[in-house]
Automatic annotation (TrEMBL):
<comment type="similarity">
    <text>Belongs to the AHA1 family.</text>
</comment>
<dbReference type="Pfam" id="PF08327">
    <property type="entry name" value="AHSA1"/>
</dbReference>
<feature type="domain" description="Activator of Hsp90 ATPase homologue 1/2-like C-terminal">
    <location>
        <begin position="15"/>
        <end position="136"/>
    </location>
</feature>
<dbReference type="InterPro" id="IPR013538">
    <property type="entry name" value="ASHA1/2-like_C"/>
</dbReference>
<protein>
    <submittedName>
        <fullName>Uncharacterized conserved protein YndB, AHSA1/START domain</fullName>
    </submittedName>
</protein>
<dbReference type="InterPro" id="IPR023393">
    <property type="entry name" value="START-like_dom_sf"/>
</dbReference>
């Protein structure tokens, strides 16, 4: 691949870090926001949020035409501050949560894969993060 530089997406959510962390990590919430567009959904999610814990979210087209499991193992978890994990294909992701009052900045940095363009990957991850922001602020 031409560029293995990690890709970063970010959003500031108008909610305290305690709520942001809860909505980010609880499967019942994950199933409500973990999709990049309205024609996709997350019908199943499991999450053992601790170092060495595993997670899996099924991401599926609503028309049933395609689905996949987004899964991995947590490398490091600092409550309401930081998460790092390794996906099934060996790529790593780092997420920081910095809360200040009623706003929380979430920054995700991930290793790119080699199938889709960097722009497509960044757009997809940003769309999911934007969906998380919309869901968290609206509930």
């Amino acid at each position: 691949m031409e560029n293995k530089t990690p890709i970063t997406v970010e959003a500031t959510i108008q909610a305290p870090v305690e709520k942001v962390w809860k909505y980010w990590s609880e499967p019942a919430h994950i199933m409500n926001w973990c999709s990049a567009s309205d024609d996709w959904h997350a019908p199943a999610a499991t999450n053992d949020l601790r170092s060495g814990g595993k997670f899996s979210t099924t991401m599926a087209a609503k028309d049933g035409s395609f689905s996949f499991d987004f899964a991995g193992v947590y490398d490091q978890v600092k409550d309401q501050q930081y998460i790092s994990y390794t996906m099934g294909d060996g790529r790593t992701v780092k997420i920081t949560f910095s809360g200040e009052g009623n706003a929380t900045k979430v920054v995700e940095t991930f290793d790119p894969e080699e199938v889709n363009t960097r722009e497509l990957q960044q757009g997809g991850w940003q769309a999911i993060l934007n969906n998380f922001k919309k869901y968290t602020e609206g509930n």
